[in-house]
Structure formats: C-alpha cells, structure tokens
Amino acid sequence: QVLTLSLLMYPVLRSLALQLHSAVTGSYISGTHSIAFINCINEQIAKDIARAIMEKKLAAYVNILPKSSALYFWKGELEESTEILLLVKTRTSKIGELSDYVRSIHPFEIPEIISLPVDQGNPLYLKWIEESVPRD
User: Fold this and answer.
1) 75-95: pLDDT as tens digits
2) Which residue in 3, 31, 38, 116 is deepest, having the highest Cβ count within 10 Å?
3) What are the CA-CA distances from residue 6 to residues 9, 14, 24 (Å)?
4) Residue 74 in contact with residue 113, Cβ under 8 Å?
5) pTM of the complete model
C-alpha cells in the first residue's frame, strides 16, 4: 500500500516541486499553459462562445480567426465546409473545465476542442495569462 500511495503521490509532489522551483528561479515550466483550438460554424457562434469562455474566466485571450475551408469525414462521407477557428490561451489545468463547458454550449454534435501545451514563450505574456486565469 505504501508503494501504491507513493506512486500515486509522485505526480503531485513533482508538480509542487516544479512550481516551487519556478517561483524561486522565475523560470517557466513547459506545459503550464495551453492553446486550445475550437471550431465554429460561423462568426456569430464563434463570438458567442469566445465571450462565454472569457466571462467564465476560462481563458486570458481568445483569437477569432477568419473563415477557412475544411474537409473532413462525417458519418462515412467526405464533407466540405467553412469554419471559424478560436485559439484559446489558458492554463493547462483549465483545459478539462474549458472542454466540458464548450461542449455544453456548442451547437455541433462533436465540436473540435483540442489543445497543445505551450513549451516556451515571452515570460511577461505567460505571466499575464497566469494572472488573468484564476487557479482551480
């Protein structure tokens, strides 16, 4: 049981150690922040979802990228459409909550909500994201 508990606690302890190291040295921990990609059928829905995300403080910044063409398979058929893409900058720890919330308000049956961790970036910008998005 002690070994099991130790293995379960390792990620938590490692995370705390990295956070302490980051706080002391001022260095960025790769993966602390993420960019989520969310597709929308039109600009109005994109703006509504972006505003809802911001009002819930699930992100520090949302880009609404202009219309683009998309090709994809849906129910065995090749589909073609236009979409608006949201780029959502947030804490990685908020991705689960962000995904759950967007799925609850998004009109698509299966909306695209994927994220990539931020490896590095402007330290002042990353600190601003940290300050803009409350901890869990």
Assistant:
1) 999 999 999 999 999 999 999
2) 38
3) 5, 12, 26
4) no
5) 0.80
